[in-house]
Every structure is written in structure tokens, then in C-alpha cells.
Write a structure and sequence with these properties.
Length: 143
């Protein structure tokens, strides 16, 4: 009986170590993904900062529901120009999970939107996203 108990205890300890190792690997993988996501968001912000003479146009732009295209998440973004001359839009779109966590960020240009008209573009994630992410307009500039 002692041999069976020792074997069971050894198996349980091995399983515990394996699970702890998996948790550590998951934590490390999560840290890497978080760092990559932060880097992508930072790059998107830098791209937005490159726009000269841009005017906040968050009210002109909306994001549709997300879907998949191959291994990427996509969303149709619509820009409606309320002004009396053609406008170009530079839009930062964030993909977020159901808990609101940032998964990815992209910058989309929609050019030549005529006065009083709408024009669409497609925001496409930089990588494969899990779950059912939501697309949100983080920033929109009309120029």
C-alpha cells in the first residue's frame, strides 16, 4: 500500500509542476502578446500624429460589426463628410475583446469623401484575433 501512495503522490507532484509550468508559460505568452499589442497601438498613435492640419472628426466616422476574412478580423468603417469640400480621413481603429481589452489597433485612410456623402473602408487586424472582437473608433481626423 505504501508504494501505491508514494506513486500517487509522485504523480500528483509531477502534475502540479507541469500545471505550474503551463501557467508560467501562459503568463509569459500573455506578457508577450500584451507587449506586442502595446507596440502596435503605439505605432498607430505615431501614424495618427503624422497627420498635418487634421481636425477631430470622431462624429463623422462609425465602425460596423466585425467579421473574419481569412485569418484576420475586419470591420467596415464609414466616414460621412458634413463639410462643403472634399475631405480625407485618417482613422485609428481598435479591436477589443468582450471585456474591453485592447487586442489590436490599425490606421485606415479613407480619401476623397465628397461633401455630404459617405465612403467606406475596411479596417483589417494585423494578426489573428480570438473570440468575437469589436471594432471601435479610437481617433478620427478629417484633413
Amino acid at each position: 500500500m505504501r508504494r501505491r501512495t508514494t506513486g500517487t503522490a509522485l504523480a500528483a507532484a509531477t502534475l502540479l509542476l507541469a500545471l505550474t509550468g503551463c501557467d508560467a508559460a501562459k503568463d509569459t505568452a500573455g506578457d508577450i502578446v500584451s507587449s506586442a499589442t502595446a507596440a502596435v497601438a503605439s505605432a498607430a498613435e505615431e501614424k495618427m500624429n503624422e497627420v498635418k492640419d487634421g481636425v477631430n472628426a470622431g462624429g463623422d466616422v462609425s465602425a460596423g460589426p466585425t467579421s473574419t476574412d481569412g485569418d484576420r478580423t475586419v470591420a467596415t468603417i464609414t466616414a460621412t463628410n458634413p463639410k462643403d469640400k472634399n475631405a480625407d480621413y485618417t482613422i485609428m481603429v481598435e479591436f477589443r475583446d468582450a471585456d474591453g481589452n485592447l487586442l489590436d489597433a490599425v490606421v485606415l485612410n479613407i480619401d476623397g469623401v465628397e461633401p455630404g456623402k459617405s465612403k467606406t473602408g475596411t479596417a483589417r487586424s494585423n494578426r489573428t484575433l480570438s473570440g468575437t472582437p469589436k471594432a471601435e473608433i479610437a481617433q478620427a481626423l478629417r484633413h
